Amino acid sequence: MTRHSDSANESYRLNVNGSDREVTDAWVGESLLYVLRERLGLPGAKGACEQGECGSCTVIMDDRAVCSCLVLAASATESRILTVESLGDDGRLSDVQQAFLDAGGVQCGFCTPGFIVAVHHLLDRNPQPDDEEIKEALSGNICRCTGYGRILEAVKVVARGRTHGGAA
Amino acid sequence: MILATGLDTRYGALGSNASRPDGAAKVQGGFAFSSDMWAENMLWGATLRSPHPHARLVDIDVSDAWKITGVECIVTADDVPGEPNYGLIMQDQPVFARVGDVVRYLGEPILAVAADHPETCRRALAAVKVTYEILEPVTDAERCIDGSAPPIHPLGNVFRHQRILTGDQTIVGEIQVEGTYEIGMQDQAFLGLEAALAVPDSGGDGVELYIATQWLHEDRKQIAACLAMPEDKVRLVLGGVGGAFGAREDISLQVHTCLLALRTGRPVRIAYSREESFYGHVHRHPATIWMRHHADASGRILRIESRMVFDGGAYCSTSPAVLINAITHAQGPYKCDNATVDGWALRTNNPPCGAMRGFGVVQACFAHESQMDKLAAATGLSPVEIRLRNAMETGDRLITGQIMDSVAPVARCITETDRIPLPAPLPENAHELLIPGGTGLTALPSNIRRGIGWGVSIKNLMYSEGFDDFSTARCRIADGAVHVKFATAEVGQGFVMLAQQIARTVLGVDDVFLDPIDTQVGSAGSTSASRQTWMSGGAVDAACRAVRDELLDRVAADRGLVRAELRVEGTNIVDSLTGTTIAVGEVIGEYDIDHTVEYRHPATEDLDEDGHGNCHVAFAFVAHRAVVDVDPDLGLVKVVQIATAQDVGRVLNPLSVQGQVEGGIAQGLGLAVMEEIIVTDGKVRNPSFTDYLLPTFLDAPTVDMILIEEHEPKSPLGAKGVGEPPCVSVTPAIANAIRDAVGRELPRVPIRPYDICI
């Protein structure tokens, strides 16, 4: 028989990917990252440092890219949260997702969802970034496999594609 | 990007940029890493670790932890039913420290708990009272050589001592250069933290473990021994692996997770934090290497002398093999007939060290490439000329006596790299992100000095010294489709993609289905030592060829064709007698064919007392040229460009090779200028990504590469492993470039700002 911890007794509602989601019997200290992954069935955001250094857990919160490991879930009840799972269309890949595959920007893939979210966020605000703007915008996302070269290429491919009328 | 290969290959076959079968799931966030594994009724596990590097474990009191609601299980050393210790080479590392015995490093596991929530686990661990009698830690490896340190383990403080004595020990060169070099402790820093889910069998007599590892079968062997279970009762399934780089070769949470699951009869997941990950896996060995080169007046190397001291930390892991790699690569990619090398791998109370990309050769290369620049200066030659003058060739005899029988295009690696254009000078109005130190404009462009440096390396491929190194693959045609199975750990490198490319090429089909990666097939060996393209690639190739041969046999028999005239070309079976073709896809539905093949590389030998023996299988080579901008007053460095030409044998997937080269260079850059686990008195000072600095997007240089394709006859696919070489010689290339810019010796990596400016 499981004995439930007495601390897990909070209930609240989060707006995630356009839907209101109930969180029940939660410990109030849980991060948004934990709640997304362990309570709402959205494992796309990844935890790799727990202190906002690596960007693997990047989600969009009210149009800002944030590290979900640093956000207390119970404090996000008034926000609109978008995760990597909201991208693409009916299972079709977004242009950024496709470009990561085509350019070789994916190896182990652990940093990838955070990068995908951060790149969408960058290009939504700045559709034609130069190399330095890309690097600065993505310098909060760490990749240990690729050395960033193929990721840079992927972002440039998307920027060119959007300029030339490619599907967004 | 300059590639030496054509891209006119059939899409998806060998040579093409086939797409990753796991790619779509990875960009969508649906790919299941081991940290994403979940099971109904699952508990969380957590590990209590020693806060002391050396202490006697006097008492453990768990009574308060048991009072916390939600705690379901606590296991200690007393609950380990089988072997109390594990280890890859020497079984010297306890599953848990035992009361009455000692802990030997900060972070050694004391016990594990299982509870309903990670926070409950944290509170339970905080409630455990452990009494230690603190002991003086042994942290200076030299004290293990001179005997002044007491033995800190029943097996002693020396993991291995090996010398190499070759040729004339008395030769003295007209020119001599020497130095003592230090390499700091680097962390693999994979992003996907250690995580596992153990699911007990209903009867409790077996367990299934979903685990991110580099070698499923080796894990299983060690886990089963500790659990006192037959190996077939311990089934391992590869959970998605978020990078490895050597850090997943050893046991970390495997036994703990299984113990908790078996004790509770419930699924248990353990997931490390970043801090715990720094304590939970082995690191790259810190090393001190003295080296002296003797050369004639023309700069030809006559003899090398070296003494290498590797601090292995508290437990053995792979230290003996790392040491052997280091000493046998002491000559670098250069001709050398006479050598006096002495190597030590030692036990201390520092964090345990073991495998990391480059495996001992990184340390040796930093020393010999630092020496080559000193030799260039002493002879008046350029860094390129001194390396070309000594460049190793196929047929040369190594200092171990082994004949270099790999393709060895060392000179070509250097000259092709030298032809890559240098970057433009830093413009006076350079973007602030291009200036050392980046934003904030602390460095003035007018104060920046540019430097150029070289590094060239040799790296062995596969396991060495007589190890029975093999890989298994199964290929079958069933229900009109091709299925391939192997236990090869996919850690991000893309073997899943390569296996499909091989099967498509050999069998002439477009669709290849991969079975789950688990222990339900023979071992594939480890995803390490740049070995899987050669070894598991060889196994998949052989299994597919066996299936293809039987398919052609049966097609010939059933259709009255001459077997010897049939071959697979593209996606067709071609009858060269009649010129007729049959699409492979049309006939495979008629057959069930199933072959499992073990691939072995040629046998190797142990080194003898004097370090002689054919201990390695094959070698790969690479040259790096680094261009750096340095602010000598502030000690800030910006790596501008890495030019490289790498000996790859044959390019099987251009994008994949490019990714390995660029990724390896970034890790080598990290060791050169920023990455170090700082250990003081046995205590890790920076176990976090805030304090352990990794290269970011802004640190990554432009990489201009040439892939040299000279097919390796010994390799089943003509290809050499490409994973390790990129990170071996880029570190000294960057160090040599910084030395060129500021004119200081800088004998230690990582090179810190205060090394440059103070």
Summarize this structure briefly.
With 168 residues, chain A is α+β, with helices and mostly antiparallel strands.
Task: Give structural notes.
- The complex is a heterodimer of chains A (168) and B (758).
- Chain A is of the alpha+beta class and 168 residues long.
- Chain A folds into two domains: 9-86, Roll (Ubiquitin-like (UB roll)); 95-163, [2Fe-2S]-binding domain (DNA polymerase, domain 1, Orthogonal Bundle).
- Helix content of chain A is 32%, strand content 17%.
- Chain A has five helices and five strands.
- Chain A has helices at residues 32-39, 95-103, 112-125, 131-137, 149-163; strands spanning 8-16, 19-27, 58-61, 64-67, 80-82.
- A five-stranded mixed beta sheet of chain A has the order 2-1-5-3-4, with helices on both faces.
- In chain A, helix 2 crosses helix 5 (149-163).
- The radius of gyration of chain A is 17 Å and the shape is elongated.
- Chain A starts with 7 loop residues before the first strand and ends in a 5-residue tail after the last helix.
- Chain B is of the alpha+beta class.
- Chain B has three domains: 23-29 and 470-600, 2-Layer Sandwich (Aldehyde Oxidoreductase, domain 4), CATH 3.30.365.10; 34-135 and 212-241 and 248-267, Aldehyde oxidase/xanthine dehydrogenase, a/b hammerhead (Aldehyde Oxidoreductase, domain 3), CATH 3.90.1170.50; 283-464 and 606-757, Aldehyde oxidase/xanthine dehydrogenase, molybdopterin binding domain (Aldehyde Oxidoreductase, domain 4).
- In chain B, the strands form nine sheets. In chain B, strands 3-7-1-14-11-12-13 form a seven-stranded mixed beta sheet, with helices on both faces. Chain B has a six-stranded mixed beta sheet with strand order 9-18-17-16-10-33.
- In chain B, helix 12 links the parallel strand 22 and strand 23 (512-514).
- In chain B, helix 8 (319-328) runs parallel beside helix 9 (361-379), helix 9 (361-379) crosses helix 10 and helix 12 (495-507) packs parallel to helix 13.
- The longest helix of chain B has 28 residues, at 532-559.
- The model of chain B is unreliable at 1-8 (pLDDT under 50).
- The interface between A and B is large, with 67 and 71 residues.
